[in-house]
Amino acid sequence: MAAHNKLTQKQIEAAKADGKQSKLADGGGLYLLLHPNGSKYWRMRYRHGGREKTLALGVYPAVSLKQARELARTARAQTAAGIDPVAERRRTRPGSGRRLPEIARAWYGSRQEQRARNTLEGDRRSLAYLTDYYKDNTDINDITTAGVSKFIEHLNLRNIPARARRTVQILAQIWDYAVRRGIITDERRNPAATARPLLNTSKPKPQPHIRPDELTDFYRAIQTTHDLHPYARPLLLLAALTVPRPSALLSARWQDIDLTARLWHIPAADMKTKHPFTVPLSDWAVEI
């Protein structure tokens, strides 16, 4: 397959996807894959064993046009010699960096500054299901839709629909993370996203609640009941007066509360939105 070198640097820099993935061909099977989010990936189509395959050559601009052409030239030479470039890359690339647990840890670490502590803790528990199921030496390139389907069956048997759903969602995100870093070496559709419909659906449960006409009796009971934990009464009253997330109230620190200004400053790290939040305190809240 001859290379025609159709693309220019100016074309590549100006290229944008119009709402969906598109391709810019350079010739000889080499093309630039354009994503709607602005990312640009070098890919090469080739045939081996009677099948058309795709080889990932890196992300532009980290891999320049010249470098992509050199990589494509090497791959064409391999196919001419009867060698599958994807299989050869897997055979010669060191195992480190492709193992699922290692990539999962890197994905988790990349989120430390973006997510609230409670979200990270929940994701850590979900990751445990993933890393307990897949062996330590599992190459992420070897994960298939059929394999993820079996993993979902394993999760469904545990009857943890919400946790199972989040665990499979995380696996899909880890796959995308590996694609963005050139660790995934082909263009298969994300196997976790493909298998996700196999998850058991959970019926929504109504949240425990108190009707407005019951509030007076409820707060009277808080004030008069003697067998409450010493912390329960003030916490329940503060929850009603400030309406925070329960986790924010339980993790409140004196250093975040300004009794003089009657303000409770919740730091960004404790907020799901990762933005600081200020709660005004009433006279009753200050007294508590």
UniProtKB/TrEMBL annotation:
Gene3D superfamilies the record matches: 1.10.150.130, Integrase, DNA-binding domain, Intergrase catalytic core
InterPro entries listed in its UniProt record: DNA_brk_join_enz, Integrase-like_cat_sf, Integrase_catalytic, Integrase_DNA-bd_sf, Integrase_DNA_bind_dom, Integrase_recombinase_N, Phage_int_M, Phage_Integrase
Gene Ontology biological-process annotations: DNA integration; DNA recombination
Protein name (record): Integrase
GO MF annotation: an example: DNA binding
Keywords of the record: DNA integration, DNA recombination, DNA-binding
Keyword DNA-binding among UniProt keywords: yes
